[in-house]
Amino acid sequence: MTDASAKDHLIVALDMPTAEEARRLVSTLGDTVSFYKVGLELLFAGGLDLARDLRRQGKRVFLDMKLLDIGNTVERAVANATELDITFLTVHGHDSKTLKAAVSGRGDSRVKLLAVTVLTNLSADDLAEQGSSFAPADLVLKRAQLAYAAGFDGVIASGQEAARIRAATGPNFLIVTPGIRLPGSTTDDQERVMTPDHAISAGANHVVVGRPITQADDPKAAAEMFLHHIREALARSLPASGLH
Ligand code: C5P
Fold first, then answer.
1. Residue 179, ligand 1, Cβ within 6 A
2. How far is CA 168 from the centre of its chain?
3. What is the pLDDT of residues 52-62, one digit of tens each?
4. CATH architecture classification, 3-237
5. Which residue is closest in CA terms to ligand 1's atom 21?
6. Model pLDDT for residues 185-236, shown as the tens digit of each residue
7. Is residue 244 predicted with pLDDT exceeding 60?
8. Measured from the CB, is residue 90 less than 6 Å from ligand 1?
9. Pocket probe mutation, ligand 1, options 15, 37, 92, 140, max atoms within 8 Å of Cβ
10. Ligand 1 near 210 CB (within 6 A)
11. Fewer beta carbons under 10 A from the terminal one: N or C of the chain?
12. Closest ligand 1 atom to 37 CA
């Protein structure tokens, strides 16, 4: 298993107060990390310029905008976002109207659309508070199926739901999993967490890691530790060639 292949599966969430701090972290991580997520925190602090810079450095960019609005607005927002040469863009996957509007806005651009199913910090009690009687895993699956039917490229879900999503969709549907933690570490505000190797083994294509890397004393060593776990999971999933 080459390191490039493991690297492709790790997305570091740049949830930092300023673009300056994010740039410093990107420079510290150097060649260890090739894929970054820019989200809402940085959006209002120079995040789009940072996304352009990351592209110029040859990094891949996941723009985590979690769009949700009337169809017309979502369609136009997605169409404008496709100008940014990003790899992934997120839209809340609550209903087919929103999802189809996003697909229409994406047009023939190469940007891949990912539907946010149920945020990984939400538990069954939180969903009940919103008026939903679904268990998180069931609502995730329902929304993943809506996204698949609408022509989305994939979903954001916790690693705990990856296997069911993979079984209900197809081999090319992308499963991107936040809420990733190493065994025994703090979960912060996340509810539905999983280790990186378990998430990859369950069918996740990419794991998104924020605070365990961005707030580590040695972010590069932390990223390397995540890559090590990903590499192990990928090695386990390789067919045992030559034995049959
Ligand atoms: O710091 P941590 O590893 O918990 O960060 C997880 C990242 O994934 C955050 O940027 C958060 O916005 C994002 N995310 C999530 N749950 C989702 C979708 C995105 O935690 N369902």
1. yes
2. 19
3. 999 999 999 99
4. Alpha-Beta Barrel (3.20)
5. 119
6. 888 887 878 999 999 999 999 999 999 999 999 999 999 999 999 999 999 8
7. no
8. no
9. 15
10. yes
11. C
12. 10
CA of 103 to the centre of ligand 1 (A): 23
Whether residue 208 has its Cβ less than 6 Å from ligand 1 = yes
Q: Which two tokens stand for residue 5?
A: 């292949």
CB atoms closer than 10 angstroms to residue 80? 9
Instruction: Count Cβ atoms within 10 A of the Cβ of residue 207 and give its class: 0-12 exposed, 13-18 middle, 19 or more buried.
Output: buried
Gap from CA of 15 to ligand 1 centroid (Å): 9
Query: Is the overall model pTM greater than 0.90, yes or no?
Result: yes
Please enumerate in sequence order all residues whose Cβ is within 8 A of that of 109, keeping only pairs 6 or more positions apart, or say none. 82
Q: State whether residue 169 is helix, strand or coil.
A: coil
pLDDT at residue 2, rounded to an integer: 45
Catalytic residue numbers, as ranges: 66
Per residue in 165-179, pLDDT tens? Answer: 999 999 999 999 999
Average pLDDT over residues 136-150: 97
Cα(75) to ligand 1 centroid in Å equals 24
Which sequence spans correspond to the domains of the chain?
A: 3-237
Q: Show the tokens assigned to 215.
A: 């707030």
Q: Helix, strand or coil for residue 175?
A: strand
Query: Among the atoms of ligand 1, which is closest to the Cα of residue 157?
Result: 21
Closest C-alpha residue for ligand 1 atom 3: 210
What is the DSSP track for 81-113?
HGGG--SEEEEE-S-HHHHHHHHHHHTT--PEE
DSSP E strand stretches across the chain: 10-13, 35-38, 60-67, 88-92, 112-116, 154-156, 174-177, 206-209
